[in-house]
Amino acid sequence: MDDRLHIIGGGLAGSEAAWQAANTGAHVVLHEMRPVRGTDAHQTDRLSELVCSNSLRSDDWENNAVGLLHEEMRRCGSLILRAADLHKLPAGGALAVDRDGFAAEITGAIENHPNIEIRREEIAGLPPEDWSSVIIATGPLTAPALAEAIRAKTGQESLSFFDAIAPIVHHESIDMGIAWMQSRYDKGDGADYINCPLDEPRYRTFIDALLAGDKTEFKEWETSTPYFEGCLPIEVMASRGIDTLRFGPMKPVGLSDPRTGRRPYAVVQLRQDNALGSLWNMVGFQTKLKHGEQIRIFRMIPGLEHANFARLGGLHRNTFINSPRLLDEALRLKAEPRIRFAGQITGVEGYVESAAIGLLAGRFAAGELRSETIASPPTTTALGALLAHITRGADAKTFQPMNVNFGLFPELAGSRGRDRKKAMAHRALADLDVWLGNARAAAE
Fold first, then answer.
1. What does the radius of gyration of the chain's CA atoms come to, in whole angstroms?
2. Cα gap 125→253, rounded to integer Å
3. CATH for 165-317 (2.40.128, 3.30.310, 3.60.21, 2.40.30)
4. What SS3 state is found at 399?
5. DSSP secondary structure code for residue 126 in this structure
6. Which stretch of DSSP H or E encloses residue 271?
7. CA 355 to the chain's CA centroid
8. CA dist 65 to 181, 313, 324, Å?
9. pLDDT in tens, 354-408
10. Which CATH code is given to the segment(s) 2-158+321-443?
């Protein structure tokens, strides 16, 4: 019997799981199929490559649930958060990273860890029966053979949805005589985003072009796959009403055009995507428009008339399992407990959430290899609330991907509004510290 921990998938969840387990002394084999087999979204063979946005979202732990999750993971010794902090870019109150430096940092750390072996190979089907402990962290782009094996083993159809990628623009091609630097409400350094303003006529013309633009056609088997509401293509949002974008990713609140001194009717924001500041991501502009149409339509935006695109938007299919039905509270597959799942395949949505479930899976698996039971973190913490939601809190009949949010936490009596979030966040960190202390004591 092979008593090493085998982790399938070298994305955010797999890398974090490997790091957490290896740091407790477990011997880990990390299986990553790239570059032996590529995917529709990845461009390199680096571990934890970010394929969509370069933002890990809000870093405000007192007032935002994902910011709280950041802080909890830092306290747990997260490799993902360490790399993010080392390669942070200006992004107001958000934690955005230089995607190349971020992935290189994680790849180097995993490669140089004495307890981790990396194997570049595809696991085509369920892992061998003599692997006593396995974490499947293959993410939304699970290879077909493994996905089919999971379906056959569980007797449940995997659920799936489409996720879209936003375009990236070369900074030198942006007209800064029209666009200006400002963070919404002057957060962060006050000038972390490039803003392209639209007046009402140009906004309406732009919406018409989005709706009429030539879009990617789905294959027959893809037509019934739903979108994830948190990452809708820009043209799908536009189809929901003329003002949907103006109250969504194109909202102008907290911004003032220096040429007029007034708030624009609508605005397109771009966020720095690399450390050099040469590449900028169109915030919220994930799309299924065909490439030629993207160039034509997005050059209608003031300031982007001559934009050169380093990457155009795209669409890929994501797959996740029905975790409330299939997994126990330690992320083990009920039908075969030697196998755990981690990351986005479990039905969490977002980079940080995926890595967080990897963190827990790595700790659970390493404890089990030491013949110890690692208690789940309290549901009053972001880690515990997220885990509880996907393993027992969500309705299996209507299960859909979920970002971490304060609605998943137990209520705190006597707190309301913004004070409520702050109180819940302080409670979370206090409870997490107790949990970490108990885990350390159990391991000693």
1. 22
2. 50
3. 2.40.30
4. coil
5. S
6. strand 266-272
7. 8
8. 27, 28, 22
9. 999 999 999 999 999 999 989 999 999 999 999 999 999 888 887 878 889 998 9
10. 3.50.50.60
